[in-house]
Amino acid sequence: MFELLEIFATALISLSNDMAVYILFGLFFAGILHELIPTTVVEKHLGNDTVGSVVKATLFGVPLPVCSCGVIPLATAIKKSGASKGATLSFLISTRMKRPIGTTLPAPLQCGRCCSISLLNPT
């Protein structure tokens, strides 16, 4: 029993170390976007609960070169800047493996083991 717990803890720490770089990249990118794009612009374009704000968030998320680990800090920053729940969710969905590079590059070149697991279990 203790051996299984030790294996689980080792795997969890290893996976967390692999993901840390990409999450830090997402935090860095979120900070840059937060400083460059005023909150009023985000509220104006993504703050309404309309189809238009969801479409704009999707169009904003598709070309971003972030993996599924790095998009979480970006979505958090967009939500804190005043985006609606629907716009934030569509941004999250559109950036996760919806771009051509996400489907053509091998998973270890994108984000290491965390994207490999994501590709193996896409649900």
Description:
76% of the residues lie in helices and 0% in strands. The chain has 123 residues and is mainly α. Mean pLDDT is 77; it is low at 101-109 and 117-123.
Quick tags:
8 helices, 0% strand, elongated, 123 residues, mainly alpha, disordered C terminus
Order of helices and strands: HHHHHHHH
Q: What is the molecular shape?
A: elongated
Distance between the termini: 30 Å
Percent of sequence in beta strands: under 5%
Structural class, judged by helices and strands? Answer: mainly alpha
The description of the largest β-sheet is:
none
Mean pLDDT: 77
- The count of β-strands is 0
Oligomeric assembly: single chain
State the low-pLDDT regions, or none.
101-109, 117-123
Continuous helix count: 8
> Radius of gyration from the CA trace?
16 Å
Helix amount, in percent?
A: over 70%
Summarize the structure in short.
The protein is an all-alpha fold and 123 residues long. It has eight helices and no strands.
SSE layout and pairing:
Elements: H1 2-36, H2 39-46, H3 51-61, H4 71-80, H5 85-95, H6 100-104, H7 107-111, H8 113-120
